[in-house]
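Justification of resources, computational component.

The compute hours requested in this renewal are based largely on the per-chain cost of generating structure records like the one below. Each record pairs the submitted sequence with a full structure-token output. That output is archived, and it is also reused by downstream analysis tasks.
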Amino acid sequence: MQDVRILYNDACPVCRAEIAHYRARATATGAPLDFEDLNTADLQGWRMTADQAMRRMHARHADGSIVSGVEAFALIWERLPGYGWLATCIRLPVIRGLAEVAYNKIAAPWLYRRHKRRMALDASGQRP
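The structure output for this chain reads:
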């Protein structure tokens, strides 16, 4: 079993592309990461609803503890060879504060709204 499991939204083109990059790097290097699409995951095991899962990226340690947002990215970077410096930088107080604002107030809400719009268009039979 991998030591960190990443919950992400494979229906989001931005999320899918980013995770594809991380997955390929993890596979190539043997990094202890596993990736799980929230659209097919057992979200009860993640202790969250589908809507909560869609709002941000989440990561679960082998011990069951769950983190999300910037810390989930830091966990990925920490475990990918060559990316550790990103994890170190993002955890510096000033940078972390800026990253949290950028992710929590801009990126995550924007991606969530785009996803909800795609879902509504798909449900109505229109193309996004």
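The chain has one domain: 4-123. The mean pLDDT is 93.
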